[in-house]
Write a structure and sequence with these properties.
Radius of gyration: 19 Å
CATH architecture of the largest domain: Orthogonal Bundle
CATH class of the largest domain: Mainly Alpha
Oligomer: single chain
Number of domains: 2
Number of helices: 10
Structural class: mainly alpha
Helix content: over 70%
Order of helices and strands: HHHHHHHHHH
């Protein structure tokens, strides 16, 4: 395992063990078995390191979005969107520790927002991608043409985000699969 991977593993470990405030670059470097200077050779700052953890270590939305788009016009549309919703809940559940730490640190949040803007990415991108898949399913006549694809995508992602955050505060009964399928059927009028 290379140094960059060790640093990413250490950052994820530090976040889970110490929270965002305690996941200092000094602590991350120590857990990775390297110097802070070496950490900064691989990452421009803590913001870049956190983005890399989000994109490379958490269950990514990218592959789930790719699967959703590849499934357009194939199989059962409710099942396809439900599978994506479950991946989104998993992502948001795992990302909550990083997101809450970012929200609690104004300077870190400002740097993270600037980095996302510079890279042309952010949490709005999956919503747009889901909306695109839903619009294509509409074009193919597989879901109700009266649905606002943008609104349905935003509602789906919002529901996934909400369930993930609720899971930290209350014990949610049952598996998320039936919940996700019900949400999807309601949104798609199926």
């Amino acid at each position: 395992m290379g140094t960059r991977d060790r640093i990413l593993d250490a950052a994820e470990q530090a976040i889970h063990e110490y929270g965002m405030a305690g996941a200092t670059t000094k602590r991350i470097a120590r857990l990775a078995g390297c110097s802070e200077a070496l950490l900064y050779k691989h990452f421009d700052g803590k913001e870049a390191l956190l983005l890399a953890v989000l994109l490379e270590r958490l269950p990514a939305l990218g592959p789930a979005l790719e699967t959703l788009h590849k499934g357009v016009g194939q199989g059962d549309v409710v099942a396809n969107v439900t599978e994506f919703a479950l991946a989104a809940v998993d992502f948001y559940t795992r990302a909550a520790l990083i997101a809450s730490g970012l929200l609690g640190d104004p300077s870190l949040l400002a740097g993270f927002r600037a980095m996302l803007a510079e890279q042309g990415t952010g949490p709005h991108m999956p919503i747009a991608a889901v909306a695109g898949a839903l619009a294509e399913e509409q074009r193919l006549g597989r879901i109700d043409p009266g649905i606002d694809a943008d609104a349905a995508a935003a509602l789906l992602m919002g529901a996934c985000f909400h369930r993930a955050n609720l899971s930290y505060l209350v014990d949610l009964a049952g598996e998320p699969g039936p919940w996700a399928a019900s949400i999807v059927r309601t949104l798609l009028r199926r």
